[in-house]
Amino acid sequence: MNPVPIKAQISYEEFEKIDIRVGTIVLVSEVKNSKKLMRLTVDFGNHRRSILAGIKQERDNPKEIEGRQALFVLNLPDRKMAGEVSQGMLFDIGYADGIVPCLAVPENPIPNGARAG
Prior knowledge:
The chain contains one helix and nine strands, in the order H-E-E-E-E-E-E-E-E-E. The chain is mainly beta. It has a single domain (about 20-105), classed as CATH 2.40.50.140. The longest helix is centred in the N-terminal third of the chain and has 5 residues, at about 10-15.
């Protein structure tokens, strides 16, 4: 891989606006009208969210991530995709660089809803 240039600097105040949290993926299910999207039901400790992620073609078995903790961006506006609503974004590594993505995960089990940063 040939890393792309670093993006323009942002302030710490701008970075602090991004709400990245740990959640456990409790269910991975099909999105009927999509060739790429899967619906992740994610437990954030005090609530669950439905988050759509384009992982269907990236993994032989997308359900293999059920029960895994990962990082998610929570303070994005709801986004309608393939007729369904996504309530956040999976924070994965590699997709933007054209390599097979992997989950961004905590080193050790940590309470759902814990904030990154």
